[in-house]
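Chain A, query sequence.
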Amino acid sequence: MVPVVKRAFWIAGFAVFLLGIFLPGYTKLQELRDKNRDLTVKIKQLKIDNSLLEQELKRVENDPVYQEKMAREKMGVVRKGEIPVRIVPEKRR
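Chain A, predicted structure.
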């Protein structure tokens, strides 16, 4: 009877020892997998954003109508003879 208890004690001790060795590594592996997944999603989104910016750059460089629109909206440029009108929204009380 004593050898069975002793054997169970050693097996339990060995199991705890193995968990102590492998559990921190497994936890770190899971953290790295999660971080990798998050970074993969971020890379995909940045590629989409980059593609959209490249398309806009091509329009700015090659489309005179778009250039005029951006100059009017972003810099307030007007044609000769035009009178600029700015509509100021009413302040809420």
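The chain has a mean pLDDT of 87. Residues 2-62 form the longest helix (61 residues).
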